[in-house]
Design goal:
Helix content is 25%, strand content 27%. By secondary structure, it is an alpha/beta fold.
């Protein structure tokens, strides 16, 4: 088992140069949650040259819609959602400074190409472990689109948030590598 990299947000390109697909990472600091409805609004704001609810530079977006929290919790279950639903929006957000995305499932070729072009990374979180992952979120605050409910944009503070590098800046693709390992 390889060592776990510990990264603090916001992320820098220099930090991302050290990562390869398959690496284990603990994220610390602030990340933002957003799903497809929020992504659509963010890209529309960019097209209209309007300010975003948060600065994208070096940031990480977690594709997640939480369940309601129990007393004493920041959030309820906070497992990843399927990432391909954000593929239409991710390249534009990376072009504007987004450095990391967290979700589950493979990405489109357009997103993989944008990851390399803009020196970003796609992290995979473990699906089905939402209750466990939520224990790594120390605070959560809705910062935009409260009318979207679970899909509102949240500012999350995380400590040792566990992810794997799925797509790195060099074109490494953990999902493609996994398929090859079982189809030889």
């Amino acid at each position: 088992m390889t060592a776990v990299a510990r990264l603090n947000t916001p992320l820098s390109t220099d930090e991302l140069k050290t990562l390869r697909s398959g690496d284990r990472v603990f994220l610390n600091g602030v990340i933002y949650s957003a799903r497809d409805a929020a992504h659509q609004r963010l890209v529309r704001l960019l097209a209209e040259n309007k300010p975003l609810p948060f600065d994208l530079n070096g940031q990480v977006i977690y594709y997640m819609g939480p369940s309601p929290p129990k007393p004493g919790q920041a959030l309820g279950a906070a497992g990843p959602t399927t990432s391909y639903r954000m593929d239409a929006y991710a390249p534009e957000l990376m072009a504007r400074g987004l450095k990391g995305m967290i979700g589950k499932g493979a990405r489109s070729q357009a997103v993989i190409d944008a990851i390399q072009k803009y020196r970003a990374v796609y992290f995979a979180a473990i699906g089905g472990a939402g209750a466990l992952v939520s224990k790594r979120i120390t605070s959560a605050e809705i910062i935009a689109y409260p009318e979207l409910g679970a899909e509102a944009i949240r500012r999350l503070e995380v400590k040792d948030f566990p992810v794997f590098v799925a797509n790195d800046i060099y074109g490494g693709d953990l999902y493609a590598e996994g398929v090859k390992a079982y189809t030889r």
